[in-house]
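[job 0412] stage=complex_fold ligand=zinc ion status=START
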Amino acid sequence: MDNLWSDQDAKAAIAQHAAKGIGEDLALRVYTTRLLGGEPRLVLHGGGNTSVKTRLPDITGSAIDVLCVKGSGWDMGTIEAPGLPAVRLDPLRELRSLQALSDEDMVNVQRTNLLDSKAPNPSVETLLHAFLPHKFIDHTHSNAVLSLTDQPDGEALARDVFGRRAALVPYVMPGFALAKKTDEIARANPDVEGLVLLKHGIFSMGATAEEAYVRMIDLVTLAEKRLARETRKIFPGATLPKDIASAAEVAPILRGLLSQPAKAGGREAAQRFVFEFRTGPDILAYVGGKEIARYSQQGPVTPDHAIRTKGVPLVAPAPQAGKLDLFAKEAKAALDSYVGAYHAYFARHNAQQLVPKKELDPIPRVVLVPGLGLFGVGNSSKDAKIAADLAETTVAVVADAERLGTYQCIPEPDIFDIEYWSLEQAKLSAAAEKPLARRIAVVTGGASGIGAATAAAFAREGAEVAVLDRDVSKVKGFAIACDVTDPKAVRAAFDKIAATYGGVDIVISNAGAAWQGKIGEVDEAVLRQSFELNFWAHQSVAQNAVRVLKAQGLGGCLLFNASKQAVNPGTDFGPYGLPKAATLFLSRQYALDYGSDGIRSNAVNADRIRSGLLTDDMIAQRSKARGLSEADYMGGNLLGLEVTADDVAQAFVSLAKAAKTTGAVITVDGGNIAAALR
Ligand code: ZN
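[job 0412] stage=complex_fold status=DONE, emitting structure tokens
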């Protein structure tokens, strides 16, 4: 592993922090924490922490000894000084005399000794940092150290590799007991550069930031060199079908199976999940291995993965192309057996607890699909990505472990203790979900106007949003460049969305454009062109949506942007109004034909919205032609109020939430009796 320390960068960090009144100790602590956090083979999603012991003034101005230690919620790769809250050191060190300390009491004493009451919670490994005497302490979950120690004879291997340079600490769950144990071992070995926590990770210590960091790199490099000596072939392949179905076909089936049916409210209220797909040669070798049932079901490579990924992943059957029904049947059987095993695992270990735990949902957070790759599963795209990152790390660590010997992690009772750790449970259940969380929404024509407002509104409600538009260069977030009048492009876009998020729940078919012409004289080409975008594109979007929705079996919601023209034609607007009228009818036809699948279909009838359809120039022209001010023209409705793109977006959102409404049209036009539906 490369040593990335640079004197120049260190000096720059000191200067930048000095300008903010932050001292050299903390500046260098931020600098090397970022170096460690930027390397995924050392630190991934909270899997590590750092500290420095320094002196800071309290409110009276007198300097006191503090421990600046990584705070929860900060990413080491991008950490800043406030991410290393200062805790009074002496009260922490006094805890060493205790025999035991509950996690809750530990968190409380850490918080009550913060210099800043608004600072984040100090790391759960804070006491370990406090008890050790060294000024700078670095902790990572290095892949190489895990591959080396996640072995039946991991202790002997580690002793051989690190010799006198590091002391070994047997596995103890993080918290007070681990802090005590580590302190005891460190005192017995005062000259070591680091401490190897078997089946967990590694600490390095130093008098300076550079020394602690370089020791971490050196120790990890020793482990890497040992692993590099092994050339054994691993993961002998299982026999798989020659043609494997695509991720786009497989994901909605798995998403439908994993999403738990709600006790009340039917398909609409199912507990959905969002997916993240990963594949590549290393993943394919791992998921396609003959012995996948052994090495994939041992448990996490380092304990804290269990909080995000549960103890073990689901192994799905290999999906043969063209035989998706068989895949769905076999995958359901595999999931049923996973869920049964999870309940049994919970019951087995819960019986041993002094205070009974509340069982978490039994759904896997990683799905391995032989021949295809792996899916991370989460309550949001962000969580699914984290699960997928951890799964990829697992593949790398287990590969090296198997090349060296046999992968073996901590035993099941210890995995349970981490998965059901009260501190982590509190963290995970704290956040209330937004109304459309776990839903995947697609907005066509989402780059501007009503579409952009709609995409933003659905994102605010917690949905994962995919924007389709001809030009998506200015779209922030997930977007696909797509001409919706090209059925092949629409299909490819839906496949990409299914492969990216796992499926689709809500589709807002919004893309449209206005063509004008007196209907008896208009060029046929103009009328046909308008029908392509204002009718056929809606049909092709809805058809693809239904294809994915039916594969999921979770119901779904189609929303169409109709227009006032669909019910109240305007002079010379035939080329626009005719296909829009057909689209309004299309919305009702989908409501009728797919109601029994739980798929709802509704439309919004908007009028006179400032957008790509009705440009500022057009507004100026039209208001002038009518002898009105622009404000009077735009507010020329029963309520006398201008209607905005966001008003239309809110109508789409309310229809998406209206679980028992289908075949409806909502008008968003400030009131226009001539366009009122009857
Ligand atoms: Zn750790």
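The chain is about 45% helix and 15% strand.
[job 0412] exit 0
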